[in-house]
Amino acid sequence: MSALSEFPITNRWPPSDPSVIQLYAFPTPNGVKASIALEELGLPYEAHRVTLAEADVKSEAFLSLNPNNKIPAIIDPNGPDGAPIALWESGAILIYLAEKTDKLLGATEASRYQVLKWLMFQMGGIGPMFGQLGFFVKLAGTEVQDPLPRERYVNEAKRLLNVVENALEGREWIVEDYSIADIALAPWLGMMENYEAKDLVGWTELRNIPAYLERFNARPAVQVGRNTPPRNI
Fold first, then answer.
1. C-alpha torsion angle, residues 106, 111, 114, 116 (rounded to 10)
2. What average pLDDT is seen over the chain?
3. pLDDT in tens, 32-62
4. How many C-beta atoms surround the C-beta of residue 220 within 10 A?
């Protein structure tokens, strides 16, 4: 009996190798945080494609792992004290993987807190606000006739982009070294193109963010992680 047999999700998405980390995700800005981190850290893992369809994320199998029905989620058969651990929430997963390997979390105690600060900034600001921007600019919210919601999220996206733009002045990465904060931030920054919102947020006026995204996307681990698990099979 494997260490993963106690997790009902493995009945729907059975592991090929139960000795490695099991990733349940889809290539969204949040989903790729986990796959990019796993690639960057060189941790062995197995990716299971869990789409955003209710048949997947609201299935009994997935809810048994994450009652909040959101990807990504992981099971590490070799967790703390050698016992399996299940985690969800992309920020928590990033911190766990970084601490497990003692990498991508800052070279000093002071830089560690800077990394965590920017991770929380992404989780509490960039992610939710950009997601709402996408909803009102490109997705179902475009049918809302009241212009106020759209204007609110466009303006907030501009403000948040300027925070990042200024922080990147003279820097290659958001803190001194490449970290989980970059893995959290960059995929969401790239969504301005997906949402067809670049003109709305003044993208052409930005100098640091486009160069930052180019550096990020050129990393081999990012190129693999952005497409893991594959969107289409």
1. 40
2. 96
3. 999 999 999 999 999 999 999 999 999 999 9
4. 9
- Rg of the Cα trace of the chain? 18
Two tokens, residue 209:
């963010």
Q: Where are the alpha helices (DSSP H) in the chain?
A: 9-12, 31-41, 54-57, 60-63, 90-101, 109-121, 127-137, 147-167, 180-189, 191-194, 198-201, 208-217, 220-225
The answer to whether 178 and 116 are in contact (CB under 8 A) is no
**C-alpha neighbours within 13 Å on the C-beta side of residue 19:** 0
What structural domains does the chain harbor?
Answer: 9-103 (3.40.30.10), 109-220 (1.20.1050.10)
Helix (H, G, I), strand (E, B) or coil at 190: coil
The strand pairing partners of 26, in sequence order, are none
- Rounded CA-CA distance 17/7 in Å is 15
- Structure tokens belonging to residue 170: 């003279």
Low-confidence ranges of the chain (pLDDT < 70): 1-2, 233
Residue 195 pairs in a beta bridge with none
DSSP state of 70: -
Q: Which residues contact 201 (CB under 8 A, 6 or more apart)?
A: 133, 154, 157, 158, 161, 192
Q: Tell me the C-alpha distance between 160 and 69, whole Å.
A: 27
pTM score above 0.85: yes
Per DSSP, 86 falls in state: E
Q: Residue 229 carries which side chain, given as an amino acid letter?
A: P
User: What's the pLDDT tens digit per position in 194-231?
Assistant: 999 999 999 999 999 999 999 999 999 999 999 999 99
